[in-house]
Amino acid sequence: MIQSLFILSPTGEVLIERHFRGVVTSRSVCDTFWDRASESINHHGGVSAISDHEELYDSVPPVMEVPGSDQGTLYVISCLRDGLSYLAVCPAEVSPLLILEFLHRVADIFVDYFGFPADESAIKDNFSTVYQLLEEMVDYGWPLTTEPNALKAMIRPPTVMSKLLQSTTVVSDELPSGTVSNMPWRTADVSYSQNEIYVDIVEEVDAIVDASGAVISSDVSGSIQCQCQLSGVPDLLLTFKDPTIIDDWSFHPCVRYSRYEEDSVVSFVPPDGNFELMSYRIVPEKVRSLNPPVFCHPKWNYGDRSTTSGDMRTGRVTLHAGVTTLSSLVFSPSHKGPVVVEDFCVNIPFPRQTRSTSNLRVDFGTAVYNEAAKVLRWNLGKMDASKKASLTCSFSFVSPKVGEEEALDPPHLSLNWKIPLASVSGLTVSGLSVTRESYHPYKGVRNIAKSGIFQVRCS
Amino acid sequence: MWNAADPATVLHQQLASALSTMGDAQYWEESISPATIQQSLLEADPSNPHHTSTYLRAMKWLLASISKGRNVSDFYPHVVKCVGVVNLEVRKMVYMYLVQYADYDTTTRELSLLSINSFQRGLADAEQWIRALALRVLTSIRIPDILQIQILGVQKCAADRSPYVRKCAANALSKLAPRCDELQFSLLLELMQQLLEDDSNTMVLTSALIAFSELCPDQLHLLHKCFHKICHLLTDFDEWGQVVTIDLLARYCRQFFKQPVAWKEGTAERIDRQRRVRRTLITEKNNTGTEQHTAAAIPVPTPSLAETSAAAGVSLPPRVPHKIKRRVVKKGFYSDEEDESTEEEVYAQDTNGPALPISKAFRENPVSAVTATASPTVLEDHEDSELAPDHRLLLQSALPLLKSRNAGVVLAVCSLQYYCGVSSIKVRAAMGKALVRIHRDRREIQYVVLTSIRTLAKECPSAFAPFLHDFLVKAMDPPFTRLIKLDILSSLALEPSAIQLVLKELGSYVRHGDRRFACAAIQAVGKIAEMARIVHDRRDAMGRDEANTIALNCLHGLLTLSQTVDHRPALVGESIIVMQCILQLMRSDSHVQPVKDPNYVQDRAVHRILLLLVYTLSKKRDEPAIDAGSEDEDEDADASKLQSVGVSLPAPAVASALWVIGECLLSNQQSVSFSPIFGKYSIEERAELRHELLRLVAKAFPLLHDCEKEQSIHFATRLLLTESDGITEEEKICEQILSLGRLDVNPDVRDQARMFSGMIHAGGSLKHDLDGIEGLPLIHRKLEKEQMLKMFTHARPPVSFLPVEGDMTTSESGAFRFGTLSSMVGHKARNAYVELPPWAAENSPSSLRERDPNDKKSTTSLPNEKFGAPNSQFYNDGDDSDSDDSSSSSSSSDDDSSSSSSSSSDDSSQQSSSRVLLPMSSGKITQPSVQNNTQQEKLKLLSLNGGDASDDSSSSSDDSSSSSSESSSNGEQGRLHDQFDLISMNTGGQPHADALIPMHITEVSPNNNYFGVANVSLPSVADDLKGLVLSPPVAGPTDQNWERDSGAWIQLVRPEHAGGLSVQGRYLRGFTKSQQVQKLGLTVDKPSVVCLQLRFENRNQGVFRRIRLLQRSQPGGSSIIRPRLFVPPPEINLLEAGKQAIGILGIDFMETSDRDGSMQAKVDIKYGSGGIPVEIKPSIGDLLLPCQRSLSEFDTAMARLQGFQRVELSVQLDASVPIKDRILGAASLTVVGPGSDWPSNGVLRFVGSLPASGDPVYILITTSKVTVCCDHALVVSNIMNIIKRALQ
């Protein structure tokens, strides 16, 4: 159970404070937390250097013990989202995962209500809604209502119009319906003039590739994202062409588990709006034979110690990147022409000892060096196999001193890319049928393959 | 407000800028003064809706102040007045403020009383969520005075009709509990129990269980009565409730069920036990026998263990000879992962395990599972068969939740399965998969999951071995997960291929920028080198060479590392320590099987260690390093190198190095040593080296660290013992070191020095420096030098990184359950951590968990049930009564002997089957007594299965209580029919079902002329019997009546949607309909009754079990007519591939209507545990009633109906098409006049009457035209559409 919930800004300021069990937790808990956090502020300065995750600080364990408050030992379970630290203060034994899942759910709801990113300004700008949401989501420290559709039936998301009205003296007394349906994830009485449902099968490739391009490990995780605008209470049935590809899966609570176990069909009454229907892992055989569609060969040269003057040294990095013709992706029938990789981007984090960069040259795309984060972002955009790209850049850095226990981090590049209408596993939908409602909705299904955490090791 | 003429872009910009000042952010600025707020609150009037914005502003300001940490309690008097404010948003904020400050001081407490009235009004509000809100806030205010009011409020809301309110009432229980006295507390307990036992809404149950975990987590016996319900509904709980509930049930399970044999002895556990690499402290004969270490552990200071605390060598009790137990590698769960070592059959050496040949055990590859020569003990299908049924039920209902999207739920299920389930391969593999899946979540979640995996990977590595790749460290992993991943990787290196992979990975980790991580990676190298030996030994006798190669490679890698990361002393130090371990490891049995070391890696390693040691020691006394080892050419070369060594080792590494070098330098003695190492040095050279080193040590001694000092003393002692002849110089230095040690400040160092010197003195070798030794008592028996030598220089067992078997920190008893907060922080997190109770000695009787029938009755009478039950049944397949489930579980256990299943079902199902008969037989019986008797006999026959219960039922049928079938609820009745027909079908087809008919036949009223003039029914027994004989429950395809009296087949369920199950249905009409309707117990002549014949067909390869129909709850829509009574066909127990089954479904709708498709029944067709929703929507054509018209009447009517009442359609009809049959198939019509001679005559006439109004519908079809006439204008086009479709 959560005794208190705090949300801290990226500078450690308390934005939201809420106590659920009648006990007021002193803010010194937050100070203790922040002291630990600020010790390990990431050297990339909170800018997402490698992945989409923001890493404001590095090494605060998500479960932390704060001894010696006026209530004895307290436990802080925390997570970091969009630069904000969500702190749940627990007085006693509780499943830490329950709390962590809940904190992330709270953050998800904020994104849902206030848009992405739900950062400091979004919270400040909507803090009264935040408090109302927390009031509905938690009762005496236990999660109460966490389904977005059910919450929206009770608390109206802020809209331009409502803000406008509030700024004038008119306040709408109209209440949301507040109906509690027997399916907590679905709003009662939904009605659309245009009934449509879009299904995206997104497969993300996580991989570790060494400098020569050999795949050390790879992993594919798929998810099915739905955007659903259907009236009434439709009952949907999604069938796959080859469900044996799926090795392990998890579902949104709306899915009937047993149907999948038996027939490998996904039968569900969808929530309204956007949601993730299921996520899955594909069978290992498929993953092992994975051949990534892009390559990037890095070469780091740190110069020689003896040739330097003082502590400063000059290094040089050379990259070759491109699209391979031999990828193992499966393309949709509607895909034509050569393989085109979209949003191709290489992130090159420089060692923290780097002082400056020079002679940056690329023959394709654009490259921008972020001085504060010490990250070079090479944006290649759209690319196909006919093009080759290379980048060279020199950098000067302070050589680590003997005994400093500081090393030049072996830089790990990360690659982002996206290939529409392609799939790693070849999973395709063979049918999506709607029952219980008489209309015939517009149905759209597509595959997307993209990078997850796609990392190139340079050492 | 905005100029409409502005271009849209401008508007947007203006909007955006306007909005930026409009959000709540303004309240964070200090622009508004508290006085203004106070003033506005004073002036505003809560009941005036125009003042809402004033309040909104004030409350937002107050909330923002709270957020900023300011105390705004002085506003309390103003705010408390606002509880009645009209606007709900404001009211919510007022509530939040009140809860925050109500208990602040005496003034606020008193003032709070003013607000209570408003909450009580809220509790009576019509809106459910306002009631809930009022209750939540009311119970959150912690003022002693209102406790009684609060309890009353909870009591009231616990019986609310809305489940949401009841949920909040359940939550409120735990809010009030801490403030209650004993009496009040027992009241709360009672409320909780009532909610637990009587409510079946999952929302409510979830909260009630959470309340249970807060109120009385130990009184698990209170869960008996709702155990079954919880298990059945578990999948429908919300995610958060599932976590709490599973934890509760795990403890319940331990307390009330006995430990299953397969818990410790499951297939997976047995494989893992042989697979995992452990050390044992037990002395026993070792079957694999390649390793026999019987080294006496001598209490010499163990070097280098300060950091490597994981090395359990420290914990070895002294003087206990121990062996390293080596076991043989077993096959993993996933056949493709492992290689060819299948053939070896290994005998488990465990105390209780019978010799167990484990061959391949597979999950995913049934083919090879069959070919594997598995002994019966390996077959896992039976592993859970010995469990108590309720225990099994619990485990099975939790298992699907491994697929939850919520990581907390998945982990809770894993915990349940691990601590309370069987350790079968199937379960363990599923757990492994699920955990690996959820570990890919966000980094905080990943951390917790990985910690759990780390614990599990040590116990059951096989479950995670296939996922080794998933644990490779990625660049963006935060430090806390990196270390855990490393741990997992090293405990999974149990196969040669895995070892290779892990070592390759470690090669890149050891240079990591994070010192702690790099050091841990270096330690892992040592651990892997050690494991590699065990793993290879298990595989074959020649494996040792491979293992040695691996160890040498590791050594070489570390050597290189120590040369390249020379600016990072910690790393160099760590690698020295691990190098020492590996050297020792290889040396430990080199006398048995010498290590092939063609590249002299060991020599080079020792050399490097020596260099580093000398450099460090010389640095310590600020002596130019060039002094060291300048004696010979080699050392000269090294001396210049020394300058570039440039790194001082940390203390533990120095100690380690000192030990290694000491070992090497003493090599000319007979003791076990690195004989090949330093082979290139002559004895003299070695003596020089030794001398120089000794000098360095002595000089640096006062500056050394404790562990270094201890090692120096050890070094000096050994030297004294071995090299004592003649070289007085050395002796002197050694004795000086000892005497320095005897005077050290550290007691440990001092004691060691004193003891060693005392012993040497007793041996008579101490000559020079006797300071502090005089006081020693004389030892009478002189110690022999040989003995002493043995004591000090005997090879010690190598330091081991492996966990010890039976170690308390890894076994269950000593540690916290994985995934708990306590396990994360390493201590009991307050007293809320409840340990798992030990297993019960015996299974508790299952009758504990049965509910009395009486109880049940009271349940259904509660208002809860009415509102809760239909909701909660969404998606749930096994949520019927307990009896239903027990019969299903027994029927699913045996394949085709379904008759035995019903007879073998337990008490509860008998009870319900006896109750089945009640409503049937209690119909109005006006038959002659003879009939009644035969009926009773038949009843008896039927209820033979029911045993004693049959007497009850027949006697109560005599009573002929007037409660007819209408009095029981729909669902109940449906189920009763199920049960009844189940019996009748099982006992061999038709005849028994007929037994029912006499009861209903009486209801046939004489004026029921629904079929043909000649067939006006006569109320005679004979006639009834005729109907009886004519109506088999399953229609044969040859039955003419059925074909004639039914419409066309309609596809209800397409086989591709239901895994091959096809369901078709057709509406019955006329005489057949009334016969069937009678049998179903519905009113025969009502137009609102429809009767469908259903045809189930299995087009799949497998079988379908338990096909049944359930009515779904339908909201009362405006235009939809819902069913009033719903009589599903009997459950089909088993439908084999390619087979068909037929059933009759009867529905009595609330009313009938002439509008097409306005009547609708929503039905779920369930099979096994799947189901598919179906809508039964009779078209107007199917609803038409038969009516008679003469030819002339027909023509007259047709002529009369014109305009809107008439629709014509031009068609071109082919004479060969059987038009009449098609029309009759599509709609329930009667032919007027001669119909048989089509098409020669050229005209077909049909007539039917509308169900609601009774208006006749006339249809005239010629070869070129179709005419439909009816008084009802709307119907005309509907009918025409039906005809059109039929003709196409």
From TrEMBL, chain A:
Lineage: Eukaryota, Sar, Stramenopiles, Ochrophyta, Bacillariophyta
Name used for this protein in its record: AP-3 complex subunit mu
Gene3D superfamilies: 3.30.450.60, Mu homology domain, subdomain B (2.60.40.1170)
Record keywords: Membrane, Protein transport, Transport
Keyword Membrane included in the entry's annotation: yes
Subcellular location: Endomembrane system
InterPro entries: Adaptor_comp_med_subunit (IPR050431), AP2_Mu_C_sf (IPR036168), Clathrin_mu (IPR001392), Longin-like_dom_sf (IPR011012), MHD (IPR028565)
Gene Ontology CC: one annotated term: endomembrane system
UniProtKB/TrEMBL annotation, chain B:
GO CC aspect terms: AP-3 adaptor complex; clathrin-coated vesicle membrane; Golgi apparatus
Keyword entries, A-Z: Membrane, Protein transport, Transport
Domain AP-3 complex subunit beta C-terminal: 1004-1154
Composition bias, Low complexity: 886-914, 952-969
Top-rank taxon, per record: Eukaryota
InterPro entries to which the protein is assigned, alphabetical: AP3_beta, AP3B_C, AP_beta, ARM-like, ARM-type_fold, Clathrin/coatomer_adapt-like_N
Region described as Disordered: spans on this chain: 842-917, 944-974
Basic and acidic residues bias: start-end ranges: 848-858
GO biological process, one term: vesicle-mediated transport
Cellular compartments annotated: Endomembrane system
Assigned protein family: Belongs to the adaptor complexes large subunit family.
Official protein name in the record: AP-3 complex subunit beta
